[in-house]
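Internal tracking record. Fields below are filled automatically when a chain is submitted to the structure queue. Please do not edit lines marked as system-generated. If the sequence contains nonstandard residues, flag them in the REMARKS field before resubmitting.
Queue: standard
Priority: normal
Entity type: single polypeptide chain
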Amino acid sequence: MNERRNIKLYIKEEFLGWKTWEVMWLITACVTIFALSVYWKDTAMGIISATTGAACVVCTGKGKLSAYIFGIINTLLYAIIAYKAQFYGEVMLNAIYYFPMQFYGIYVWSNHMNVETHEVEKKEMNLNGKLILCGCVIIATIAYGFILKWLGGALPFIDALSTVVSVVAMIVSIKMYAEQWILWIVVDIVTVIMWAIAFAQGNDSIATLLMWTVYLGNAVVMYVKWIKEAKANAV
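SYSTEM-GENERATED OUTPUT FOLLOWS
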């Protein structure tokens, strides 16, 4: 009985606090990706992965726990799609790292929800933290790029940059810092280029390319939203 009540409470809170533009953006992103993917005859796996991925990033921007539910589905399917495209960095990122981190994210965010807005608390990093992260990203990208090149991966250093920044961004996201969206913008730009090249070379994952394009637009919008709310919370 208690578990049923908790589930009902969770579902109720996920629907609370949404602004009109946020609801419209969620619907537009998911419906557009789904419709265009069907039109271009992408695979069922690609369509589901792309649609749940769009829902995941929008709900992350809103600060809702449901982001991680969508993320669980998306990471598993996307890992399979990336494997077929020989983007091994993306495969390892999603299957080994992103998937288990969804459960950790649920645990952390559930303990830091704002009781009034029913959204996760939002913070802003200090300058020292930003500088340390930048240094780590540069060093790790170079090292991982050589590993992927040795493995015979496609576009190893682009793949490495996307993977390394994604690892850092996921940690920053779970820690509820607004700077995650700067990292996601970098990831999204690199990954859009990567999948655009793959599509131009004959890969049929148009839904995946559309998904990452939506991710990019969402990251820009959500960075503005999170910085504004983080500054308000710091007052």
